[in-house]
Amino acid sequence: VGYRQALEFLQGDFDYSSFRDKGIAATRQLAKRQLTWLRHWDNAFLYDPQIKAFSDEIVAKIWEILDNGPT
Predict the structure, then answer these.
(1) For residues 58 and 45, what is the distance between their CA atoms, to the nearest angstrom?
(2) Phi and psi (nearest 5°) for 14?
(3) d(Cα 70, Cα 64) in Å, to the nearest integer?
(4) How far apart are CA 3 and CA 22, in angstroms?
(5) Using CA atoms, how far apart are residues 57 and 22, in angstroms rounded to an integer?
(6) Which of 12, 32, 39, 56 is the least buried, fewest Cβ under 10 Å from its Cβ?
(7) What predicted TM-score, i.e. pTM, was given to this entire model?
(8) Based on the number of CB atoms within 10 Å of its own CB, is 42 exposed (0-12), middle (13-18) or buried (19 or more)?
């Protein structure tokens, strides 16, 4: 994400502010597509990175899968 915008910026197609804004927009669009794609996975594990111990939850799930096989 952002490679196309960086190339266009380096070619002089737009200024740094536009480059930054276009990079942010491209990142948001990718995130939206990823979330849409993941919604179709019934067995997907979703974690909230704003929860302080979310990394502990992920590690625990990985160990559970390794010990028991996929759920």
Answers:
(1) 9
(2) -160, 170
(3) 8
(4) 11
(5) 34
(6) 12
(7) 0.61
(8) exposed
